[in-house]
Design brief:
The chain is an alpha/beta fold. Helices cover 47% and strands 11% of the residues. The chain starts with a helix and ends in a 13-residue tail after the last helix.
Amino acid sequence: MTTNAEKARELLRLHTAPELLLLVNVWDVITARVVADTPGTRALATASHSIAAAHGYPDGEQIPRDLMITAVGRIAAAVDIPVTADLEAGYGDAGDTVSRAIDVGIVGANLEDQLKPLPDAVRAVEAAVAAGASAGVPFVLNARTDAFLKAGDKDPEAVLADAIERGRAYLGAGASTFFVPGKLDEPTVTRLVEALGQRSVNVIGVPGSLGLDTLQRLGVARVSYGPWSQNVALTALATLAEDVYRGGGLPEGTRKLN
């Protein structure tokens, strides 16, 4: 794959294929290369939280957009497989942000709704989709709702209904898939897929989430891991430091991957 359009078409194919797409999120060039070189990897996803943290910023569009675009561009340039980027809520201009991401080799993106009023969120999706069309790239937009993450003490049925309404609206506006982060149980995922269609719903893997076999059976398109892959790496680093301070050393089985 050499062009953005080819990579975008492959990324879309991976979402619509019968097999569940698994994306282990990365946050810099070395993590991208390690994951890309791992057998079974077919595409990469960045994690905005992890990239922001690596640069000393909190999550939530606190990192400057230019720095985020540079970071995801370096990742895309380091590998020869499709890369989808977490572009948060679009940094105030979803269309322009997606255009700039495409310019640096990104062929798909997460776009958060931050539970904004539905018409505003739909306009952001439309702008992002239009940016891909303008660039001649079948951009794979993964429109995300924060309905479950920000549910608080709302009635679960109302939360699910809001998520389904938003999913239908975003898919209708041209989004390729609908991302519903949160720790979701099987009945909830089942109803989301029934309402929005097979291979239309994406979820995140978190501690205690549904198993991959179950998600495959339910018709989910993809599972990504957001900041959790960085937390796995940081846990290993913290464990090494703790062991060294107790008089130990490198753990058995450590591989030299860079």
